[in-house]
Q: What sequence folds into this?
């Protein structure tokens, strides 16, 4: 059997062990994940999305274990560089990291003012390119390093939304801010900061609703 399939079987058993005696329906509802997807994950038929893995980590208080494991399996399946296991990664000193401050800022975001102006298209293209680069680097870059980069861009995008933007420009910026929020949630989860991860997940959902993006909001 291929190595990634063995890993996926172990991953499925781990999820089942974490659920314990609770029903799939009840566990899925409490963890805020799709019941059908959870069933397929436990059966080894489906690798959860990054968002689902982050929510399971948050609910089960597993300090990013499931997200990191999911990332390894995805890399093994697709031929990407395989991230190290938890045993191969040393402890992270989060005192040097600004993630919690960013989470506090995220929790305070509200009431943006929309008016009549737009961001230059190259800026939007640069933001999109940056998110694509973060997506590629996510499996191989230390969480703290990646989050520092995502945090800077996220703050910049939020500042743009606080300014005079409307129409299609605003929709695109909301989508990008939501995507940055997802990666901040994932890296916060990897660093064991569950409260910060939940804050960013909620913020990503708000941006998704504003942008009308159903995939991001799921």
A:
């Amino acid at each position: 059997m291929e190595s990634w399939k063995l890993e996926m079987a172990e991953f499925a058993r781990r999820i089942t062990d974490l659920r314990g005696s609770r029903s799939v329906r009840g566990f899925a509802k409490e963890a805020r994940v799709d019941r059908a997807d959870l069933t397929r994950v436990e059966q080894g038929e489906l690798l959860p999305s990054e968002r689902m893995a982050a929510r399971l980590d948050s609910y089960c208080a597993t300090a990013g274990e499931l997200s990191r494991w999911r990332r390894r399996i995805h890399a093994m399946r697709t031929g990407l560089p395989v991230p190290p296991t938890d045993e191969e990664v040393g402890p992270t000193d989060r005192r040097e990291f600004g993630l919690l401050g960013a989470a506090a800022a995220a929790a305070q975001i509200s009431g943006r003012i929309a008016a009549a102006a737009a961001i230059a298209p190259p800026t939007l293209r640069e933001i999109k390119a940056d998110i694509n680069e973060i997506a590629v680097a996510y499996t191989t870059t230390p969480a703290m390093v990646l989050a520092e980069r995502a945090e800077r861009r996220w703050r910049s995008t939020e500042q743009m939304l606080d300014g005079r933007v409307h129409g299609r420009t605003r929709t695109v910026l909301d989508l990008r801010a939501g995507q940055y929020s997802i990666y901040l949630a994932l890296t916060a989860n990897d660093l064991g900061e569950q409260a910060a991860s939940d804050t960013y997940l909620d913020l990503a959902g708000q941006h998704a609703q504003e942008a009308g993006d159903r995939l991001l909001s799921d």
